[in-house]
Amino acid sequence: MGNSFISCLYKNGVWIRKTPARAVAEMGYGFLQGYMKLARMCFNAGVRRFVILPKMHMIAHTVFWMFDQADIRDSNLCIRALGLLSAIRSELNGDDFEAEKMRKEGQATLT
Q1: Please, are residues 35 and 55 in contact by the beta-carbon 8 Å criterion?
Q2: So where are the chain's domains?
Q3: How far is the C-alpha of 88 from the C-alpha of 83, rounded, in Å?
Q4: Tell me, what DSSP letter sits at residue 53?
Q5: Is residue 64 predicted with pLDDT exceeding 70?
Q6: Virtual CA dihedral for 8, 89, 85, 70, nearest 10 degrees?
Q7: How confident is the model at residue 74 (pLDDT cuts 50, 70, 90)?
Q8: Domain of life here (predicted)?
Q9: What pTM value is reported for the model?
Q10: Which of 8, 48, 101, 105 is the most exposed place for a label (fewest CB within 10 A)?
Q11: How many other CB atoms sit within 10 Å of the CB of residue 74?
Q12: Cα–Cα dist 22/69, whole Å
């Protein structure tokens, strides 16, 4: 489910139309459920894997936001504005490079 979720985000580009946005949100929800299930299994087995970082919380908020927007809006959703791909990439790489880059970009536009 995680591969499908990320593949759809990349395939759709910066803007996702309303209908696919709902499907992408459902894939994202499946990704989060799978992540939590595997994390729980590893924790119960005493294996240190799937360490949950704060970015997973942000990804969850973003997925729920996508559900809300897909249900109430007629317009497309701007995924790049959310920084979702950057957050996922940072999460998978185990670093904050992308998050730091986006923070600096945001500061540059404010000044």
Answers
A1: no
A2: 2-110
A3: 9
A4: P
A5: yes
A6: 60
A7: low
A8: Eukaryota
A9: 0.63
A10: 48
A11: 5
A12: 9
